[in-house]
Amino acid sequence: MARAKVQRKSTSIDMTAMCDVSFLLLTFFILTATARQPDPLEVKIPSSTYKIKVPDLDMGILSIGQGKVFYEIVGKDVKMATLDKIGEQYKIQFTPEERERFGVLGSFGVPVGSLKKFIMMNGDEREKFAKANMGIPADSTNNELKEWLLQSRKAVAELHQTAMRVSIKGDAEEEYPVVKKIIDILQDQKINKFSLITSAEGDAK
Amino acid sequence: MAELDTSSGGGKKGKVRSKKANTKVDLTAMVDLAFLLITFFMLTTSLSKPIAMDIAKPDKEDNDVKNELRASQTMTILLGKNNKVAWYMGEAGKSAPNIEGFTEIRKSILKNKEEVLKGTGRQIVIVVKPTEGATYKNFVDIMDELNIAKIKTAPAIDDVNILDSEKDAMKKAGIL
């Protein structure tokens, strides 16, 4: 009897289509991902079961932690417009390069006096500087935070014709009076509605 | 004129057979890498989206708007230190506040909500009073608890008018 011949099949598969699809997906995810700016102020945000996503336009984010306040304005155009207004207020001239650099800056927490120096620093120096600094002054004698808020709100209103949303990103262990002090500054400007940024938590049982 | 000599110089007869090179490239490694990156980007994009909790506080200067609350439908929650809360129903000082942790407060809120609804037919109104001892987390947690308990009426957040009787009760319990 003749033996049945087992045909040998090649085990390699054509990967071209798979490769195409995977790279398409990869490009999509890379493009949709927003590059995260490193936060100079380390904040551990509490979690909640709320479901509303933080909008990513026309926002001012106040980070509160270790008794310091940092401020972040969302949007390059708004940032630059705010810087102009602050410069006017405090009689500081900013060069186009400084404006440009400030436009891509994340959250900051320096007094207006050292802002120029801060803008021209590179990443590493900035981080060190931010750690050593006391954040944006928010005392009753020197309330720069109030100015920042006011000017950024004006900038948003002028550029986008909407009201700026104020969000607070507070450290979980921060004492309430510190947060209250900041909220009081907001309320002085008649901002009675604001959002607290929290991380998502599973549904309650 | 110069001309390129294209003829193969050899005196070989017949066609030069070009070797057919295999054009297939092994894509396995490339696909592996691509999927690894996809997984990375997928996980980082979906996880970094924070959640906003909207808070409304009463206007400071606008004193005309005063909402009279019935004692029978009001529950006041005081936030103290060491992650403790004190709550009481109705008017301050009339009944001793209950001291609880954050794990028990949910039950109490739900219980009181039911009782108020049964007794008066109205929705419960909650007044949250964070004191100096409270942390920011406590405040977020209590707002979250109210959200979980589905309290329909907007909670009043009052961090200015903390009554002496409330302070005394909290001091006695060691949470202020």
SSE topology sketch:
The complex is a heterodimer of chains A (205) and B (176).
Chain A: H1 16-32, E1 47-48, E2 59-65, E3 68-73, H2 76-90, H3 96-103, H4 115-119, H5 123-132, H6 144-160, E4 165-170, H7 176-188, E5 193-200
Parallel strand pairs in A: 1-5, 2-4, 4-5
Antiparallel strand pairs in A: 2-3
Helix pairs in contact in A: 2-3, 2-6
Chain B: H1 28-47, E1 51-56, E2 74-79, E3 84-89, E4 98-101, H2 102-120, E5 125-130, H3 136-148, E6 156-157, H4 164-172
Parallel strand pairs in B: 2-5, 5-6
Antiparallel strand pairs in B: 2-3, 3-4
Helix pairs in contact in B: 2-3
Name the pair of protein chains with the most residues at their interface, and give those residue counts. Answer: A-B, 54 and 45 residues
Q: Provide the gyration radius of chain A in Å.
A: 24 Å
CATH class of the domain at 71-172 in chain B reads Alpha Beta
Sheet of most strands of chain A:
5 strands, mixed
Observed structural traits:
heterodimer; A: alpha/beta; 41% helix; B: 176 residues; alpha/beta; Nucleotidyltransferase, domain 5; five-stranded mixed beta sheet; 4 helices
Could you characterize what this model shows?
The complex is a heterodimer of chains A (205) and B (176). Chain A has 205 residues and is α/β, with parallel strands linked by helices. Chain A has one domain (47-200). Helix content of chain A is 41%, strand content 14%. Chain A is built from seven helices and five strands. Chain A has a five-stranded mixed sheet with strand order 1-5-4-2-3. In chain A, helix 7 links the parallel strand 4 and strand 5 (193-200). In chain A, helix 2 packs across helix 3 and helix 2 crosses helix 6. Chain A is elongated, with a radius of gyration of 24 Å. Chain B is an alpha/beta fold and 176 residues long. Chain B contains four helices and six strands. Helix content of chain B is 35%, strand content 17%. The radius of gyration of chain B is 36 Å and the shape is elongated. Chain B has a domain at 71-172: Nucleotidyltransferase, domain 5 (2-Layer Sandwich). The N and C termini of chain B lie far apart (105 Å). A five-stranded mixed sheet of chain B has the order 4-3-2-5-6, with helices on one face. At the A-B interface, helix 1, strand 4, helix 7 and strand 5 of A face helix 1, strand 1 and helix 3 of B.
